[in-house]
Amino acid sequence: MKTVTTLIFLLFVSTSASAAEPEGVPPPPEAYCKWEMTNYSIPSPLCGLKGEVPRGEKLVSDAAKGNCLACHELPIKGVEAYGTVAPPLSGIANRLSEAQLRLRVVDSRHLNPNSIMPGFYRDPSLINRPGKGYEGRTFLAAQDVEDVIAYLGTLK
Ligand code: HEC
């Protein structure tokens, strides 16, 4: 009898835990940092954060995060398949400054209103019908965006 009670208790605990945190839902939103655009670029790092190159390199090929490889070629070892719907990003730092890169990653619709590229740090209040669990959130955290920018800056 004791085992049954324990089992029921465990069942209850596990279901209520999963109800509070359903699978696939991103962590709670962090405070959104407003950014400013000048000359089709965003000169200041989001929330004043500093990006880390190795983290950025992981994020660009992480299908659940940046997933940049779905559309762009990137010089990442061991990756042979990538999307070709977007310009290759090898050597991108020779053409775009860090500030210009930031606007592309944050919200490329400011350059091309029909862009199919996701806005990774678009103002959540401007997003129409956000996906379930994405209300009030950006696709990537500010730190993630800065890490991606830092990595792109090395592609010379
Ligand atoms: C769904 C496809 C898609 C995904 C995913 C995507 N992009 Fe893009 N990206 C594009 C397209 C298409 C363009 C070309 C400009 C436009 O149409 O907005 C572009 C343009 C760019 C540019 C400017 C390139 C140039 O030559 O001027 C940069 C930089 C960039 N993307 C970075 C990224 C990064 C970093 C990621 C991942 C965090 C990413 N993109 C994810 C489709 C995508």
UniProtKB/TrEMBL annotation:
Residues 1-19 form the signal peptide. Pfam families: Cytochrom_C. Transmembrane segments: none annotated. Keywords: Heme, Iron, Metal-binding, Signal. Residues 51-156 form the Cytochrome c domain. This is Sulfur oxidation c-type cytochrome SoxX. It comes from Thiothrix winogradskyi.
